[in-house]
Amino acid sequence: MRKGMKFEEFVTENAEVELGKLLLSLAEGCKVISHMVNNAGLLDVLGANDTTNVQGEEVQKLDDLTNKILMDYLKASETCAGYVSEENEHQVTLNANGIFTVAADPLDGSSNIEVAAPIGTIFAVNERLSPKGVEVEDRDFLQKGTVTKAAGYFIYGSSTILVMSIGYGVIGFTLNTADNEFYLSHLNITIPAKGKTYSINQGNVEKFDDGLKNFLTHCATIDKETSRPYSLRYIGSMIGDIHRNLLKGGIFIYPANKGETKGKLRLLYECIPMSYITEQAGGEATDGNQRILELQPTGYHERSAIFIGSKNMVQTAMGFLHAMVKQ
Ligand code: P6P
Predict the structure, then answer these.
(1) Cα 68 from Cα 103, distance rounded (Å)
(2) Whole-model pTM over 0.85
(3) Which atom of ligand 1 is nearest to the CA of 252?
(4) Ligand 1, atom 15: nearest CA belongs to which residue?
(5) In angstroms, rounded to a whole number, what is the distance separating the alpha carbons of residues 269 and 85?
(6) In which residue ranges of the chain is CATH 3.40.190.80 found?
(7) What are the pLDDT digits (tens) for 64-109?
(8) How far is residue 163 from each of residues 138, 172, 214, measured CA to CA in Å?
(9) 7-186 classified as CATH 3.40.1280.10
(10) Cα separation of 118 and 61, whole Å?
(11) Which residue of 38, 84, 91, 305 has the fewest C-beta atoms within 10 A of its own C-beta?
């Protein structure tokens, strides 16, 4: 593996053939999405399409388009048996003879499209459990994150970067806009054990439990020895916040709170893939009680609280949360 190698070469040298075909199809589809995102203002794809998704959220035109693009490219790969996403209420069978399933958030942070903030496509790949040749079933998707075959995200920011793992660490490929090819740009992404950034929607602080409030006070306390106060950085796009923290160190928190009793982010196609990547990079991810990857999904769109990022910061946060529980 060497910096500058093409994604296609990496896949050929390191991934099983069928998985490689699936990953290449995702990359091709996300090249199209990257182009659309980067030209959104010129393509009449901004704004909502007057529908709401299964979450009851307003669907952006690009949400719908990116969801269709992913399904088309995955179907063409002939390796993907089925697909679930934020935009589809139920699972979709793409190739009954396929051996993998994909759970995806086609365009995370899509409400940021109009303000040109970083957004992205998140995916997790599993091996199907049902026999080849039949329609996919719930059990093909509702698997713990510990058995994830591959996961990653495409971040459409100041550059388009594919960050992924097939179980041997985390690497990044940057899209060269000159030839529209992904090239290896980030070898062995490792998240620092501690950072100086915390990411949370502070505006919800009155809805948080006391333990979390105490952790946030800890982050904001002046203490030169431990480089505090930390900086609060919150883009409102999970992929942007977690990508920054993955490279620089930090913690991202979307907790359960008085308004959202299970948190906001979806377990299957947001929390699990981002937790898989973070753990592969040496970080931690929990729902406040359990490792995210150990949670047993029971529904396609179930939500989970998430504390994810630098190991030391996640463990410190848990210390504050559980201290309150003991008293
Ligand atoms: P809030 C975007 O809609 C998203 O799903 C994540 O990407 C982001 O981290 C979160 O919601 C922001 O939610 O409630 O802070 O606006």
Answers:
(1) 14
(2) yes
(3) 9
(4) 201
(5) 7
(6) 197-326
(7) 899 999 999 999 999 999 999 998 999 999 999 999 999 999 999 8
(8) 27, 4, 33
(9) no
(10) 17
(11) 38
Within 8 A by CB and 6+ apart from 116, the residues are none
Q: How far is the CA of 265 from the centre of ligand 1 (A)?
A: 8
Give residue ranges with CB within 6 A of ligand 1.
Answer: 108-109, 111, 201, 236-238, 264
Q: Up-side HSE of residue 224: CA atoms within 13 Å toward CB?
A: 0
Mutate to test the pocket of ligand 1, among 58, 237, 251 (most ligand atoms within 8 A of CB): 237
Asked if residues 120 and 156 have their Cβ atoms less than 8 Å apart, the reply is yes
CATH class label, 197-326? alpha beta
Whether 324 has a pLDDT exceeding 80, the answer reads: no
The ranges of the chain annotated as CATH 3.30.540.10 are 7-186
Q: How far is the CA of 230 from the centre of ligand 1 (A)?
A: 21
Measured in angstroms, how far is the CA atom of residue 8 from the centroid of ligand 1?
33
Pairwise CA distance, residues 291 & 273, whole Å: 13
DSSP state, 270? I
Q: What is the mean pLDDT of the chain?
A: 95
Nearest-CA residue for atom 4 of ligand 1: 109
Q: Whose CA is nearest to atom 12 of ligand 1?
A: 236
**Hey, which of 254, 258, 260, 269 would you mutate to test ligand 1's pocket, going by the most ligand atoms within 8 Å of its Cβ?**
254
